[in-house]
Amino acid sequence: MVCIWSAGDRAQSVRRMPLRALWSAGNDLLSRLPVPHAWHRPHGALFILGAPRSGTTVLTQSLVYACEVESFTNLHAAVYGAPWLIEMLLGPWPVFPPGSFMSRRGRTRGLMGAHEGARFHYRFFPHEPQAVPPGTVDLQDCLALRRNVRAMAALAKRPVVIKNVANGLRLCVLAQVLPEALFIVLRRDEDAIVRSLLAARRNESGTESAWFSVKPRGWQKVRGREPADQARWQSRAVYAAIASARSRCPGRFHDVDYRDFCSNPDAVIAGIADFACSHGCGLHLRRNAPLAHMIRRPAGVAP
User: Relative to the CA of 206, which of 175, 223, 255, 298 has its CA 20 to 30 Å away?
Assistant: First the structure.
């Protein structure tokens, strides 16, 4: 067997392991901190959903820029055991307008950049399988998720926006655990999603054959197909899972078309705010925060 790691790579990996172990252990301790009961009251939560490479990151960035919301950031991800500590220790963050709405396959730069919070979600949901149908997890175990999200919103005194494409496979549980939650579904031309997914595979792994991002139920059965067919199936499976969950609570969903968002982002964000307010979630637009001059991405360009 040929070792593809250099001596420098191995040394760097060894140095990182203790730090990662300490980080994980520290967050395990943080997860045991009690959340004061006064912070358990709902203040609103919006989940951004869609297929991978559908534009969920830039939509989240736009909501944070244009609306009075709290969001899960790179800083929160560092303390995923108790993300509400950021609001408790530092207070509600003033919104720093992003210098760029760009991201790298969902990842952003800066402490306040949008983050999917994978480690936070994996505290309550399994790594595999990522699809979580009703009745497959103990709802009591997920109550800590509710306490954390509500504490973030209560301390920030504004709704929380959470973006994680895998949540499209956990919707039934999320809807039960957070009855105040609303769901924004971003849709994009399927061919554009497929092209972007294939590009992400090449950039991440050097080949289009390597799987990228969320794994809907049955993903192993399509591994023998052509990469483009896999990507198309992946996108359709995510939206099918969202549609299935939507049939159980249809009034809590709002659709956004990526092409409309690119051509008139201010109108789309205003529509989301109107939808949220009509459901008792106080999502207020900021003054003097237009988006049209900041987002100039053509609808066919990968987000």
Answer: 298
103-134 pLDDT tens trace: 776 677 777 788 899 999 999 999 999 999 88
Look-up of token digits 């960035």: 61
What SS3 state is found at 192?
A: helix
Q: What is the pLDDT of residues 142-178, one digit of tens each?
A: 899 999 999 999 999 999 999 999 999 999 999 999 9
80 token code pair: 């995923």
**Amino acid letter, residue 114:** A
Task: State phi, psi for 48 to the nearest 5 degrees.
Answer: -90, 120
Provide CB contacts within 8 A for 272, sequence distance 6+: 46, 63, 67, 184, 254, 256, 283
Give the closest residue to 188 by CA, choosing from 259, 90, 289, 274.
259
Enclosing H/E stretch for 23: helix 7-30
